[in-house]
Design goal:
This protein has helices at 2-11, 14-32, 61-72, 84-96, 100-126, 129-140, 143-148, 155-170, 174-187, 192-209, 214-247, 253-265, 281-284, 318-321, 323-339, 345-359, 361-367, 381-392, 396-415, 422-430; strands spanning 293-302, 305-314. By secondary structure, it is mainly alpha-helical. The protein has one domain. The chain has a two-stranded antiparallel sheet with strand order 1-2. A hairpin with a 2-residue loop joins strand 1 and strand 2. The protein is globular. The termini are far apart.
C-alpha cells in the first residue's frame, strides 16, 4: 500500500511529468542518432565535401562537423560563429568516435533538456501544473524543433542555455542567469535577442512593482542588468579569448566579435530576388506556408510504393499556426490584468520574447534584406507552447480545444517523425498519410 501511495503522490508532482515527457523525447532522439550514417571516411568530408553526398550530414552539419574536425587538430574554423556548440561536437567525437553518435549525442541531450526547462519556466510564470505539462508536451512534440534540436548544429545548446538562464532569472539567481546566458551567446550569437527580451521583461515587472516610481524601478533594473548582462558579456568574451588564444584565430576577442558582426551584416539578398527567400510572414500563417524544406530526405520506391525512411524537414506545425492567435489573445489578457492591478507575468513574457525573436526578422528581412530562414522560429516555439495553454486553461469549455490542439500536435509529430521503419511507413500509407 505504501508503494501505491508513493506512486500516486509522484503522479501529482510536476517534476514527475516533466521528467517523463523529457525521457520520452530523449528516447525518440537517441533512436534517430545513427540515421543517416556516413558512407565515406571522415578525411574525405572535411574541406571540400563530395557533391554526391555520402558524409552522413544533415543540413548545416556539413559546416559544423568539419569545423569540429579541424578544431580537433588545432585549426581555427568557422570563426563567424562562436565556438561552444562546436566544442560540444568535439567532445562527443572524443568520447563516442567520429561518427553520428559523436556528432549528435551532446547536441541531442541539449535539445531534450529544453523540453524539461520549458515546463519549469511555464510553472514559474503561471503557477499552474497543468499548463506547464501541456507546454512541455507542445514543445517536445514540435517536429521542426525536434529535428533542429537533434542534429549537430548550433541551435540546441543556444536554446538550452538561454532557457536555463531564463529560469535562473525568474528565480532571482542573477549571476547564475548571466553565466548561462553567456554560454548561450558562446553557442550562437542570436541568443542576444533572448537576452534583450528578458531585460525588457524585468524592466516592465520592476515598473509595475514600484507603483509607478520610475526612478526607483530604473535603479533596480540597472542593478539587475549589471549582474546579468555584464556577467553574460564577460563569459562570452572570456570564452572567445580562450578560443582565440588556443587556435591563434584573433589577437583579441573584440577583433573576433567585429569579424562576426561584419560577416552577419553582409548576408543580404537582392530585393529583386525576394521570391527566393522564405520571408517571416510565411513562417506561421497556414494560408501562405513556406514550402516544406528538406534538410535530408531519402526516397525509396519499391513495387510502385514510394516512402521516405529518412526525412528531416523544416515545416510549419499546428503549434506554429497558433502564433498570432496566442499573441493577440495575450495582449488582450494583458490589458485586462493591468486594468485590475495585476502584473501579467506570462502574457508580458511571451509577448516580449515573441517580439524580439520573431517580429525582429520583419525589418531585417523586408527592410534590410537580410537572409532569414524559417528554422529561426524554433527559438520562439517555447513561448508559443507556453502561451497557447495560457489562453485556454482557465475556461473549462475551451480546455477541450486545448487538449484537441495538443493531440493534433502529437499526431503531426508522429506522422512526420524523421526516421521511420518500413512497417511504420506502410501503416501511414494505409491511412493515406505521407510516409
Amino acid at each position: 500500500m505504501d508503494i501505491w501511495r508513493s506512486l500516486l503522490r509522484s503522479f501529482k508532482k510536476l517534476r514527475f511529468w516533466l521528467i517523463a515527457i523529457t525521457v520520452v523525447i530523449t528516447v525518440f532522439k537517441l533512436l534517430i542518432i545513427p540515421h543517416p550514417w556516413p558512407d565515406l571516411p571522415a578525411e574525405e568530408c572535411i574541406d571540400r565535401l563530395p557533391e554526391t553526398g555520402g558524409c552522413g550530414f544533415v543540413f548545416d552539419e556539413a559546416h559544423y562537423v568539419p569545423a569540429a574536425r579541424k578544431m580537433l587538430i588545432g585549426q581555427a574554423a568557422n570563426n563567424e560563429h562562436p565556438p561552444l556548440s562546436k566544442a560540444l561536437i568535439m567532445l562527443g567525437i572524443l568520447i563516442f568516435g567520429d561518427n553520428p553518435y559523436g556528432w549528435r549525442t551532446f547536441i541531442t541531450l541539449c535539445g531534450a533538456a529544453c523540453v524539461y526547462l520549458v515546463g519549469l519556466i511555464a510553472y514559474e510564470l503561471s503557477g499552474s501544473r497543468k499548463l506547464s505539462i501541456i507546454a512541455s508536451i507542445l514543445f517536445g512534440f514540435d517536429v521542426t524543433s525536434f529535428n533542429i534540436g537533434s542534429i549537430a548544429i548550433l541551435d540546441a545548446p543556444a536554446l538550452m542555455f538561454s532557457l536555463l538562464g531564463t529560469l535562473f532569472l525568474l528565480r532571482h539567481r542573477f549571476i547564475a542567469s548571466g553565466i548561462s546566458l553567456g554560454l548561450a551567446l558562446l553557442s550562437k550569437v542570436s541568443a542576444f535577442l533572448i537576452v534583450i527580451s528578458l531585460m525588457l521583461y524585468i524592466f516592465f515587472k520592476n515598473v509595475h512593482e514600484s507603483k509607478k516610481d520610475l526612478r526607483f524601478a530604473l535603479r533596480k533594473w540597472i542593478r539587475i542588468v549589471e549582474l546579468v548582462v555584464f556577467t553574460a558579456a564577460v563569459i562570452m568574451i572570456v570564452g572567445l579569448a580562450i578560443y582565440d588564444y588556443a587556435y591563434g584565430a584573433y589577437k583579441t576577442p573584440f577583433e573576433h566579435l567585429a569579424f562576426m558582426w561584419n560577416y552577419h551584416t553582409i548576408l543580404t539578398f537582392d530585393p529583386q530576388e525576394m521570391y527566393k527567400v522564405d520571408m517571416p510572414l510565411t513562417w506561421i500563417l497556414p494560408m501562405m506556408q513556406f514550402p516544406r524544406s528538406p534538410l535530408y530526405v531519402v526516397e525509396v520506391i519499391v513495387n510502385s510504393k514510394k516512402y521516405h525512411p529518412i526525412a528531416y524537414y523544416v515545416m510549419q506545425t499546428p503549434l506554429w499556426w497558433t502564433g498570432w492567435l496566442v499573441i493577440v489573445s495575450l495582449l488582450y489578457f494583458t490589458y485586462l490584468k493591468l486594468r485590475s492591478g495585476d502584473f501579467p507575468k506570462m502574457e508580458i513574457f511571451v509577448t516580449l520574447w515573441f517580439a524580439t525573436n520573431y517580429l525582429v526578422y520583419f525589418p531585417l528581412a523586408y527592410v534590410f534584406h537580410r537572409w532569414v530562414y524559417p528554422f529561426y522560429f524554433c527559438m520562439t516555439v517555447p513561448v508559443i507552447a507556453m502561451g497557447l495553454p495560457t489562453i485556454f486553461i482557465d475556461d473549462r469549455k475551451f480546455e477541450y480545444v486545448l487538449y484537441a490542439a495538443t493531440l493534433v500536435q502529437v499526431v503531426w509529430f508522429l506522422v512526420f517523425f524523421p526516421v521511420k521503419p518500413e512497417w511504420y511507413s506502410d501503416l501511414l500509407l494505409l491511412f493515406g498519410l505521407p510516409a
